[in-house]
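>> received
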Amino acid sequence: MGIYAEFEKREREVFPHNKIILWDGRMLECYPLAAQAPDKIDEDHLELDTTGQYLSVGAKKLQPMPTKTKEAEEQKQLFIKNAFYLLSHRERIMSDSRMFLCRIPIQSGLAYTGISGFRNPTLGIYLEWWSIVQGAMRTDSKGRKSLVYHLAGSPLSGANKCAAVREDGETEIVSLSPFNAHWGPFTRINNRYTEAKQLYQAYTLQEVLDILDQEEDNNMDYAHTIEMQYMTHEIEVFNRRIEQIKEERDMWYNKYKDTLIRYNEDKIRKFYAEFEALETNATMEIEQLKEQKRGLKAELKSGRLDNITYQKKLMPLTKRIKELEIEIGCFKFNKVLETFPDESDITFNVIEQFVRNTRKSND
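>> returned
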């Protein structure tokens, strides 16, 4: 199943009361906010940006970008600085909804749609996005690992200027290709938890780091843990690619098979007509033979036949029924093999379904 088909399937899931279902299927208990729940949940679906900041509409003047607070900038840098540390504690974070829903003050955005779809990403959203999207966890030609943390570009042209942080803490500008394979999954994952972000408690990033520090295992091999995370990511990506290739293979083979059947339609209809005639005659004869068998059994029960005579008369009837059944089976097998000698997947059932479906269409 391709990743977008998986999104469509998962977007139909309904979260149980006070719970969220993560991408990998695990369910987390959530803790309602102390304040009363909002009367209306603010949606975060993609929509046309009318501020003029990302796309100028007519003569509308560009609106000034909101100024980042010092605290927001500090929180952003805290996340960037600890990105790999947080990745190494992925399983712990993904086991606690308050860590999962921790807000990350990094604002991505697109030309034409602005920041819609990207509002209020959380720590768990980044961890899920990193794990399932090829290119979100990067390794360059020099073997240096990095994590993409900011998305910016055009959803139409695909031109983009994104940002990633390396293991050594240095940030870099990166171009992601194809861009839609990165921003699309991010917004889909982000929107998956839009309601949860407004209803349930979340730790601050500093609180998450403090808890992880308190629980610190001094024997933890960070390099090995990060390497395992990257290997797991690669396996996940390759497995999804394999499934996608299988789906594409099946789709093209089914198209080829359908074309092949339609190309041989005249032969198929002729042999199927022969089969129907054979089956009709054979069925009639089999019913007659079965009726004779029932008559013999009645004579045996009434005493007009002894058992030896009954068996002698019964055997040729049973034998003939078996011969007729074998004749029908052999006809189907041999005719399919004769028409499609190199196509083992084209069976009599496939042909029969084709004939019946086309008959319905013509009626």
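>> The longest helix spans residues 222-263.
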